[in-house]
Amino acid sequence: MQTTKRVIRPDDFEIMAQIPGIAAVARDESLRLFWCTPSFYRVSGKVEFANDMMGTMLADVLPEAAAKERTEIHQRVMETGETLSHYQFSVDSRVMCTIFPLDEEAFGHRGIFAIVKDAPVYARLGEDREIPVLSTPNLFELNSLSFRELEVLHYVAIGMTTHAIAEKVCRADKTIEHHVNSIHGKLGTHSRAQLVRWASERGIQSFTDAEWDSIVRGAREVRKEFV
């Protein structure tokens, strides 16, 4: 996990709010939200306006497993003063999240400041591979897909043929075609090209097989909470 040292002061809030393409949130020592950019609601997919998030905890907007994984990172940042970065799959899109510690003296308490920005870029640089990926996703439209369909979607996104996918998962070609047709029906796509574009716009192809497998297993754990 990449680490650096950099604390956030109150005057950083206005600067961060003016940077296009990012969402940012500040949480106090109990990890209760006390400030966020208007765009941050998109990350949770739960509320319509930023003001609705004031005072919320991670468990208020995320499944228990997802909230626990993120809480552990936030607590580490507060305890060590390190800045940590990771990728996550949030509201069906690949994003990068960087967590900074708050300046305790300036705020009068510890806390964290998180910046989230879209990261659907296909290319992976050498240092990019050192940034971990959270296993618990926050799914939206993809919640309707079965775990096998989520798996197939990733293989389609990286350009594998139906036959290659069938060999990869030890299933018949017709079974994979059935999965792809089911995905089309659930996502509203009508061709493989449309499906690849849908996935590419959300950065699904940028995850490695192992990372996506971890995300699918994480989705399984999240869904168990609602069974």
Describe the protein's topology:
Layout: E1 3-5, H1 10-17, E2 22-28, E3 33-36, H2 41-44, H3 58-61, H4 64-80, E4 82-90, E5 93-101, H5 104-107, E6 111-118, H6 147-157, H7 162-169, H8 173-187, H9 192-201, H10 209-224
Antiparallel strand pairs: 1-4, 2-3, 2-6, 4-5, 5-6
Helix pairs in contact: 6-8, 6-9, 6-10, 7-8
Walk me through what this model shows.
This protein is of the alpha+beta class and 227 residues long. It has 2 domains: 3-130, PAS domain (Beta-Lactamase, 2-Layer Sandwich); 141-224, Arc Repressor Mutant, subunit A, CATH 1.10.10.10. The protein is built from 10 helices and 6 strands; from the N terminus they run E-H-E-E-H-H-H-E-E-H-E-H-H-H-H-H. It has helices spanning 10-17, 41-44, 58-61, 64-80, 104-107, 147-157, 162-169, 173-187, 192-201, 209-224, and strands at residues 3-5, 22-28, 33-36, 82-90, 93-101, 111-118. The protein has a 6-stranded antiparallel β-sheet. Strand 4 (82-90) and strand 5 (93-101) form a beta hairpin. Helix 6 (147-157) runs antiparallel to helix 10 (209-224) and helix 7 crosses helix 8 (173-187). The radius of gyration is 19 Å and the shape is elongated.
The share of residues in extended strands comes to: 15-25%
Strand order of the largest sheet: 1-4-5-6-2-3
Give the number of DSSP strands.
Answer: 6
What about the largest sheet? 6 strands, antiparallel
Q: What is the number of domains?
A: 2
Q: What best-fitting shape do the alpha-carbon axes yield?
A: elongated
By CATH, the architecture of the largest domain is named 2-Layer Sandwich
- CATH topology of the largest domain, by name, is Beta-Lactamase
Radius of gyration (CA) equals 19 Å
Number of helices: 10
The share of residues in helices is 40-55%
Distance between the termini: 33 Å
Helix and strand content put the structural class at: alpha+beta
Low-confidence stretches: none
Report the top-level CATH class of the largest domain: Alpha Beta
Q: CATH superfamily name of the largest domain?
A: PAS domain
Integer average pLDDT = 88
The sequence of SSEs as H and E is: EHEEHHHEEHEHHHHH
